[in-house]
Amino acid sequence: MLSYRHAFHAGNHADVLKHLIEIELLNYLGQKDKPYWYIDTHAGAGAYSLTEGYATKNAEFETGIARLWQRDDLPKPCAITWTWSGG
Q1: Which domain of life is it from (predicted)?
Q2: What whole-number distance in Å separates Cα of residue 42 and Cα of residue 45?
Q3: I need a labelling partner for 34 at 20 to 30 A (CA). Which of 20, 56, 63, 85 fits?
Q4: Which DSSP state fits 22?
C-alpha cells in the first residue's frame, strides 16, 4: 500500500490552488446571513516547515507558494496579509 505524507508536497502548486479555492468558497458562504459548519475531513498537521525536513527533499513549494511570496500584484484572495516566520 502506498502512503502519502503531505509534508513532501506542502506549498506546491496544487496546494496553493486548493487553498485559493477554499478561500473563495468560504468567502462565498460567508455572504449569506446564516451560520454554517466547515469540517475539513482531510486535514493534515496544520503547519509545515518549508525550510527543513521533508519539504526540502523535493522543494515542491518553490514552484508553488514561493513564487507568490515576493509578488505585490496578487488578486484579493491571494493578498491576505500574514507574516511568514520561516517555518
Answers
A1: Bacteria
A2: 10
A3: 20
A4: H
Our CA dihedral for 60, 69, 20, 85, rounded to 10 degrees, sits at 90
Domain range summary for the chain, segments of one domain joined by +: 6-40+47-78
pLDDT at 42: 82
Q: What grid cell was written down for 20?
A: 485559493
Residues 6+ apart with CB under 8 A from 50: 10, 11, 56, 61, 65, 66, 87
Q: Name which of 2, 70, 26 is nearest 62 in CA terms.
A: 70
Q: How far apart are CA 60 and CA 34, in angstroms?
A: 38
What's the mean pLDDT in 12-37?
A: 88
- Of 59, 55, 35, nearest to 44 by C-alpha is 55
Query: What is the pTM (predicted TM-score) of this model?
Result: 0.74
